[in-house]
C-alpha cells in the first residue's frame, strides 16, 4: 500500500504538469501531495479482511485469521473496502480527523475502484455472511473478527505516520466532484500497477519504522517512474512553424496561420477545416507544440490509417520535437503491427542507445488498459472514446487523456452512432484540461455546432460560408475565434460526367474506361460494395486475358487477409504515389485499380481519371482527392484536366444497387446538389456542397438532371426518405448515448447508476464510420487433400498448450474482416460453426483461439484450397472462395 502511495507522491512531486493538472481539477493547497498520497495508500484497505486473507487458508490459519466460511470464495476486496468505509469504519475505531472527513472518504472510496469499475452497490457486500462475522454478535477476544479489526487499525495508523509523520495535517474542507473522482480512480489504478511491479518493489520482511519504509519506497518509485517513461520533461515551445518543421521549405498558408492563434494556459478546442493535401496533420502537431502539455493522442478512423501515420508521428517526435519517446500504437491489432514491423522501425531509433532503451521500456504501455497512459500515442479513435464510456478501466483511459492534446482526424466520419459519444468525450476533455484538435475536410455545420457546444458549454455562432477555416475556443468561453481567408495550394476545375447501368451489365462503362487508356493513363474505379468491385475486376480481367492486353490491373478492397492487403497497399502506393527519382516507382503507362472505399482513406495515391459510384458528398470529395493529387510531369494530354465519371441510378428503386450502405436521403440530396452542374470548382465549393447535403432542408426538386440523365423523385418520396433518415439517426443517437458515462455535472451519488459495458462489445467499440454494421474476423483454414493450413502453418492434430507469438502472428495475419453480406455475418455468429464438435480438429483449434487473448473473437472458416465451398446458414446458401487475386468472394446462391 505504501509502495503505491510512494508512486503517487513521486509522480506528483516530479511531474509539474501533472501536479498542476491535479491542482486545477481539485484544489491548490500545500497539503495536496500528502492528502492524495494517503488516499492512494488506502486503496487496498479491503485486503485487511477475513474474506481476502482466507483466499489462502493455510496462511490465514497461521495468522489466527482462519474463517472457513470464506475459504476459496469469490471476494472483491475493493468493493469490501468501499463498503467498510461507508458502513463499518466508525464502529471499529476512533480515527484521526482527516479520515473522518466526508470529502476525504469520497476520495478514499474512489481509490477502491482500482480494479476497473465503479462499485454500484456497496450494501450488497455487507450481506455476504462469509466476508466478516456479523458485527452485532458477541465475540471472544481472540476471535478472528477482533484480530482483523485490530490489524486494520494498525495498518491505518502505520500508513498515516509514514505519509503524514507525527505532526498530522492541517484539515480544510474541499469540494469533491464526480468528474474529479473518475480522474482520481484512474490515477490510483495507474499507481497501483506501477507500485505492484515486483521487479521494482521487492517484498521486505524486516520491520521498518513508517517514515523509513516510505523513504525507501519513494526511492524505488522514482526508479520505476523513470523506467516506465512517466517522468517527462516539458517539451520545447515552438512559436514559428518553420522552427518546428525546417524541412518544409515553403509551408502551406494553413500551417502558418496557426501562428496567429494566441494560446493561453486554458484548455482549448481547435477545429481545422481544409481540403486534403493542405497539411492539416502538421498544423495540428504545430498547434500542440505552440502550447505543449503532458503529450498527445492522435486518433484516426481506421487501423490502416493509424498504422500509416504512426511512423510519420514518430519521425516528428524524434526529428522535430527532439524527444526520446516513440508514440505507442493503440488499436485492436496494434500488437500484430508491432510484430511485423520490428525490423522496419523508424530509423531514428537505430542511432541512439538512450533512445533504444527508452523505447524498449515503453513496452509496459502496450497493455490495452494502459495505451493512453503513454505520453504520446497514435491509434483508432475508439481507444479515446472508451474514456467516455462506462467500461472496465474506462477511467484509466480518462486519466490517460487528462492534461494532454487529443487530435482526431477525419472527424466528419463519426456520425449518428458515434456523435453522442464524441460529445460526451469532449465535455470531459474540457473538464479534465485536455486540449482537443479536430481535423476535417468536410465537417457539416450541424455537427460542428454540437461539438463546439460540448466542449465550451455554450451555444456558439460561427461562419458557415467560409472555407478553409480555423476555429478556436477555450473552455467556458462565449467567444469563438475564427481565421478565414486561407489560401490553398491549388484551385482546380473538375469536369463531371454521369452514367448508369443495370445490376449485372457494366460492359458499356467498362469498355469506355478501356478506351480512355488506349493512349495511356491510370484510372481509379471506386465501387461501394466488394461484390461489385469483384464483378468489374472479373470483367476487365477477362478482357485483358482474351485480348492479351498488357495494361496494369489490380483489385483492392478490405476482404483480403491482412498480409495480402498490406502487400497490395505497398504496391499501389509505390506505383501511384508522389513522383520521385526512384527506380522502384515506375508508374504504369496504362492501368486500372478497381477498389472500394479503402482507396479514399489515408493512401497517398494519384490517378489521372476517376470512376465512382455515387456516395455522400463528403466521401465523393474525398475520392476526388485521389486524382491529380500531385504535380506530375508524365500525365497524358487527354487527362491534363481532372475528370470524374459518377455512376448513378435513374430512379429510386435502383438506389440500393449503387449505394445500399448509405442513407437514401443523403444520396438523393447529393445527387440534388450535383443536378445541372457540369464541373466543380474546388476548394471554393466544398462548404456549399456539404451544407446543401447535410442541412435539414427537404429539397423540392422532382427532376434531378445529371448530365444527360434524369432522376425522378416526388415530393412525397423526398418526405419519406427524410422520415426514414430521422428515425434511423434517432435510434443510433439513443444507442450511442446508452453506454456513455455520466455527464461531468452529475452528482456523485448518481454516477454509480451507469451501466457497465463490455469492452469487447462490437456494437460499442468498433471504430464505426457511416454507422457500420457488426463485423467479424474470419480465419480461412485452407484444405488441400488431407492437410489443413492457416497461411503457411499446418494445423496439427492437437493445438499446442500455449500458442507462440509467431503462431499468433501467422493466424492474425491470415484473418479477414467481414461485415457483409449481413445475413452471412449474422449466420456465422449465431451458428458458432467451429465451436461445435462436428469437425473435431477445427473445434479444438477454435477453442484454443477463444482462450488466446489476441485471437479471441476470430472465427475459423474451412475452405477448399482450389474449389468453392458452400455453407448453409438459415435458409441461405453461401458459396465462398478465397485467393490472393480476388480476396474473399461470397456469393449468395439462394434465399427463401
Could you walk me through the main structural features you see in this protein, from its secondary elements to its overall organization?
The chain has 896 residues and is an alpha/beta fold. The protein folds into four domains: 226 residues, Hypothetical protein af1432 (Orthogonal Bundle); 208 residues, Tandem AAA-ATPase domain (Rossmann fold, 3-Layer(aba) Sandwich); 231 residues, Rossmann fold (3-Layer(aba) Sandwich); 122 residues, no CATH class. The chain has 35 helices and 25 strands. Strands 3-4-2-5-6-1-7-8 form an eight-stranded mixed β-sheet, with helices on both faces. Strands 11-12-10-13-14-9-15 form a seven-stranded mixed β-sheet, sandwiched between helices. Strands 18, 19, 20, 21 and 22 form a five-stranded mixed β-sheet that branches. Helix 1 crosses helix 2, helix 3 crosses helix 8 and helix 8 packs across helix 11. About 5% of the residues have low confidence.
Describe the protein's topology:
Layout: H1 2-14, H2 16-25, H3 32-41, H4 50-53, H5 57-62, H6 77-92, H7 97-100, H8 102-111, H9 123-126, H10 144-164, H11 178-195, H12 210-227, H13 241-244, H14 253-257, E1 268-273, H15 280-290, E2 296-300, H16 303-320, E3 328-330, H17 334-340, H18 353-361, E4 376-380, H19 382-385, H20 394-401, E5 405-408, H21 419-431, E6 435-440, H22 445-456, E7 469-474, E8 481-483, E9 492-499, H23 507-516, E10 521-526, H24 530-547, E11 552-556, H25 562-576, E12 590-595, E13 609-613, H26 617-624, E14 643-647, H27 655-659, H28 664-674, E15 679-682, H29 686-694, E16 703-706, E17 709-712, H30 715-738, H31 748-751, H32 762-765, E18 776-784, E19 787-790, E20 793-794, H33 805-813, E21 816-818, H34 822-831, H35 840-850, E22 858-864, E23 869-873, E24 876-883, E25 887-894
Helix pairs in contact: 1-2, 1-3, 1-11, 1-12, 3-8, 3-10, 6-8, 8-11, 10-12, 11-20, 21-22, 28-29, 28-30
